[in-house]
Amino acid sequence: MPVTEIDTWLGRLSIHETDGAITQLLWNGSGRKEETPVLKEAAAQLQAYMNGKLEKFDLPLSPKGGDLHQAVFRAMLAIPFGETRTYGDVARELDTYGQPVGQACGANPIPIIIPCHRILSANGLGGFSGSGGTETKIALLKHEGGYPFLV
Predict the structure, then answer these.
(1) Using CA atoms, how far apart are residues 121 and 123, in angstroms rounded to an integer?
(2) Could you tell me where this protein is found in the cell (predicted)?
(3) Distances (CA, A) of 81 to 11, 37, 126, 140
């Protein structure tokens, strides 16, 4: 599986590709670096996002997960930059419950690109499975602006 890494203000991130699509984004690199067209583009888009120059990713994605997870991933991808939804909002949209939505968010293998940080609990931030937990979630939400409750 080809992998590339980039250094960002969140730390070193590794981007993984399988069969021409991004399958994972992980914190703390493995030391491996391969250049494929998809990984070059993913690294460039991720760096542009981190530098405040990209609001929407345009990459081939292939996250693992069952039907509900895939539906939640699509719902997260539909949330515009600078906006948030709650687990309940997504659950109502998908005719399910908040807990399975939260589980799918926690299982998201491509955080940031599939913006699980834009999903909040009804009573606050909720969790974040990426390195740094909710502190990283807060940093990403602040980075995207439009979150006066976090400024």
Answers:
(1) 5
(2) Cytoplasm
(3) 21, 25, 18, 11
Q: What is the dihedral of CA 130, 136, 141, 142, to 10 degrees?
A: -160
- If you average pLDDT over residues 34-52, what whole number do you get? 95
Do residues 93 and 126 both lie within one domain? yes
Residue 27, in any domain of the structure: yes
pTM equals: 0.93
State whether 86 and 140 are in the same domain.
yes
Rounded distance between C-alpha atoms, residue 111 and residue 73, angstroms? 10
Q: Which structure tokens are listed for 37?
A: 């067209």
Residue 103 has pLDDT above 70, yes or no: yes
Residues serving a catalytic function are 116
